[in-house]
Amino acid sequence: METKTKFELKLGVATREAFGKALVEAGRKNKDIVALDADLSKSTYTHFFAKEFPDRFIECGIAEADMMAIAAGLASSGKIPFAASFSCFAINKGFEQLRVAVAFPNVNVKVVGTHSGISIGEDGPSQMSIEDLGLACSLPGFSVLSPADEVAMTALVHAAVAHAGPVFLRAGRPKAPIVHSAGQHFEIGGSVQLVDGKDLTIIAHGLLVAEAIRAQETLEAEGISARVIDMYSIKPLDRATIQRAAAETGALVVAEEHLVATGLGVRVAQAAAETHPCPIEFVGIQDTYAESGAPEELMEKYGLVARDVVSAAKRVLKRK
Amino acid sequence: MKKTSNVAELQAIAKQIRRDIVEMITHAKSGHPGGSLSAVEILVTLFFDVLRHDPDNPKWPDRDRFILSKGHAAPVLYSVFAECGYTPKDQLNTLRKLGSIYQGHPDVRFIPALEASTGSLGEGLSIGIGMALAAKLDQRPTRTYVVLGDGEIQEGQIWEAAMFAGDKGVDNLVAIVDYNHIQLDGFVNDIMPLDPLPDKWTAFNWHTIDLDGHSIPALQAAFAEAAATKGKPTTIIAHTIKGKGVSFMENNPKFHGTAPTEDEMKKALLELA
């Protein structure tokens, strides 16, 4: 696979904004797409869609449970609903409805959770979604996607439209560094190898992909060759790529802005354990809630920056 | 299937549905007879007179939608479905058994003609709103009917949905509350009273009709009134009797969620002869 050797990591738009723009594009092509929001449309960027398609935008008020089940009814009648809110509210407050009204009958609802992780910053832990991927992945039939940048988000919004079945798309609040080239292919169940390497593999999603690239550059300067993979499809998981990485590099680091206990890491470990057990280190949020602060300060304090990935890489290499 | 507005014919169907309910729950040895029997006239009036539907073409896009939000009353829906010809009548007594299409609660995976999988109380009204909104977007004549349990409307989501549909004027939506006054732990009035129930729906900007939920003519008139009501959804508060039609089940909390014995079934079927 052809991979880059140098990344600019230029700051792009936030993935939530990329979602809002892509939804409008998708809405122009497909009149069955409708958007629902629970009084956060200016934050989730569904207001772009609301402006262009007022008749296809449904403001539900602050009632996420109602919103998810309304989306289920719309989907059962042939619509392609995108129901958006902060990720913590969409998943946690809508969870029972996502279980019984969406996942169980397997209806075609797309859930978009913005402001995920702790990088929402100053609003603090009640607004931070650190459990969302674990909960979403626990729903049978759900596809769960965590794009790293605007390129990935745009492509995955269109992939979600094309996919018949429930999808959870995770988006972030801050502007996201661009890690992918224009035209990069994304698909549900896929992944992108950004850098090849032989000593270990760093697997990441969301904002941690850029940190993984920064870590790889640091490691390279020290003579350590790290492969970097954007594992944006949390479920279904690109097991073949993980197993190949485990077999070829013999050590993995998984880095994510989510609880380590229920995030991508445990899923990667399961896939590796089945065919190529190897040492794995996990960079993520430990068994705790965070606090208010600037996003970059929080990422530092809770161990989610390149330095933490480098440390984990060195630990895992010692265990090889 | 034959549709009819004739009250005597509808009453005869209702009696047959009651017999099916008692038999299938007895064979299953578990289930919810009380709240199935209380809703019989509501479902019979809808499926055999009011609803625009076609068992030979269950996914007809212009059909009316029906959701049994109180999913534990599945036996009434299954016996009506079988009577309409959607599902096999001779399998009704496989209710709740492994491999049966007649699952403990309605499940679209087993019966695709169902509009929703229900059983977790409080969700059906919101799902119905979604279907009603889709019909409006597509300019279809479809109307959506949702049967709610009285205990069910203790769920907060019902009032989120009530606020939404009232505000948005979802006038192609009808909620029917099967007000039989009994829930699993006992009498609704002892657990979490609902009154003044019509006032609550009216305050949420719904057109509200209060009626005897076992009176087929009253139900027919109410569904016609709902269809003629523009700009507001309609809720029908259907005053019913839990276990209606079987003397020892009527108003008896025990038969919310207990199956009759073989002897009780025989007694019940004699009463429903």
Describe the model.
The complex is a heterodimer of chains A (320) and B (273). Chain A is 41% helix and 20% strand. Chain A has 320 residues and is an alpha/beta fold. In chain A, strands 3-2-4-5-7-6-12 form a seven-stranded mixed beta sheet, with helices on both faces. Chain A is globular. The mean pLDDT of chain A is 97. With 273 residues, chain B is of the alpha/beta class. In chain B, helix 1 packs across helix 4 and helix 3 runs parallel beside helix 4. The longest helix of chain B is centred in the N-terminal third of the chain and has 22 residues. Chain B starts with 6 loop residues before the first helix and ends with a helix. At the A-B interface, helix 4 and helix 6 of A face helix 5 and helix 6 of B.
List the helices and strands and how they pair.
The complex is a heterodimer of chains A (320) and B (273).
Chain A: E1 11-14, H1 15-29, E2 33-37, H2 41-44, H3 47-52, E3 57-59, H4 64-76, E4 80-86, H5 87-93, H6 95-103, E5 110-114, H7 132-137, E6 143-145, H8 150-162, E7 167-170, E8 175-177, E9 192-195, E10 200-204, H9 208-221, E11 226-230, E12 233-235, H10 239-249, E13 252-259, H11 264-275, E14 280-285, H12 295-301, H13 306-318
Parallel strand pairs in A: 2-3, 2-4, 4-5, 5-7, 6-7, 10-11, 10-13, 13-14
Antiparallel strand pairs in A: 1-8, 6-12, 9-11
Chain B: H1 7-28, H2 33-37, H3 40-50, E1 65-68, H4 74-84, H5 124-137, E2 144-149, H6 156-168, E3 173-179, E4 182-183, E5 186-187, H7 188-191, H8 197-203, E6 207-212, H9 216-228, E7 234-239, H10 262-271
Parallel strand pairs in B: 1-2, 2-3, 3-7, 6-7
Antiparallel strand pairs in B: 4-5
Helix and strand run of chain A: EHEHHEHEHHEHEHEEEEHEEHEHEHH
How far the N terminus sits from the C terminus of chain B, by CA atoms, comes to 23 Å
Largest interface by Cβ-Cβ < 8 Å: A-B, 31 and 32 residues
Rounded mean pLDDT score of chain A: 97
Number of strands of chain A: 14
Strand content of chain A: 15-25%
* Total of helices of chain B: 10
